[in-house]
Design goal:
This is Manganese transporter. The chain crosses the membrane at residues 27-44, 65-96, 102-122, 129-152, 164-190, 211-231, 263-284, 305-323, 329-350, 371-391. Keywords: Membrane, Transmembrane, Transmembrane helix. There is one protein chain. By secondary structure, the chain is an all-alpha fold. It has one domain (2-392): Amino acid/polyamine transporter I, CATH 1.20.1740.10. It is built from 15 helices and no strands. The chain is globular.
Length: 393
Amino acid sequence: MAAAAIGASHLVASTRAGAEFGWQLAWLILAVNLVKYPFFAAGARYTASTGESLLHGYLKQGRGYLMLFTGLNTIAAVASTAGVAMLTAAMLTLFIPLSIDLLALIVLLSSLALLILGHYALLDKLTKVIMLCLTSSTLIAVALAFNAPPVISPDFVSQSPWQWAYIGFLVAMMGWMPAPIEVSAWNSLWLLEKKKTAHITKEQAIFDFNFGYLTTAILAIVFLALGSLVMHGSGEQFSASGAKFASQLIDLYSQVLGSESRYLIGTVALLCIFSTTVTVIDGYSRTLNMGWRLLTKTQDTETGLTKVMVGICTLGLGIILFFKGALLPLLEFVMILAFMTTVIFAWLNYKLMTSSALEEADRYGWKMKSLSMLGMTYLVGFALVFIYWLVTK
């Protein structure tokens, strides 16, 4: 889950927040990770307690709940696939001088080949190494940046993010922080797969989830620090162009790690985002395939899963072509969409974790209920403010 989360939300949203506003949004990133926690934790907790996926739980609540999840999940799948595929293509422009649209097609076809041919198991093992390399290099870069000469000029005045014009950016940043909430359903399915080959206690499943979740929250602040220390106050802003953005992102590392590290960091970041793309296609396809199977009461087939994957990638490519290489506008659109659907996904998970489908000892207690209510208030409040901003701007 950590590998799936540390993609666009961290490399793009957190780094951009630091570059544009310094440390001002650090508390907001931590806050949104905190208030989303109960809704993400539902995936591990429900499956560890019942041996079933969240989708089975939705169906037990009523057919309409699973239909609502599957419908919104379909929209999110196409949009998210487009977002991560274009980001991967943007990183690929550092090595291959082709258009982002063509590179996005190559990325999607490569992802499908890995998944359909069954070679994702190898990538799954490599993901741990890739994430370790990216995390280590980012921590080193931030440590060096703290000791580097300041880039802020003496007369520079940092702009405040708490302005009406930046509501869209704030909502977009929180949309994928640390990841879309429907990832909780992926986590649920991954845990079921893991249980087929290893004995996992409820306590171990919850510990594993908590460790991954805490890691993503800390790294979000680390990426914000990199943007703040290296780019904030320098007079440079991230470009909306995917190719230019990728180059600027790698420049943040090379400025403190040395120019010779540019292609090494570029390779690690590319592999990180590519693994995220494959994970996104795999996770969304599996949840959609199972959702539709449960609704139609049909048997599981590899052909069915493959058709879902191909359909998601085809529609995702259509969105990429529509945005014509404008990476930041596409990611902002996808992240805003994720934030607006977060409220419904969060409510579905909360309802399930407080329902009679669970043993009383496994349901959320007063602490998790209180945090859930705080989270719902937070999410609904920001969603209403954003809708008002969208109508009046």
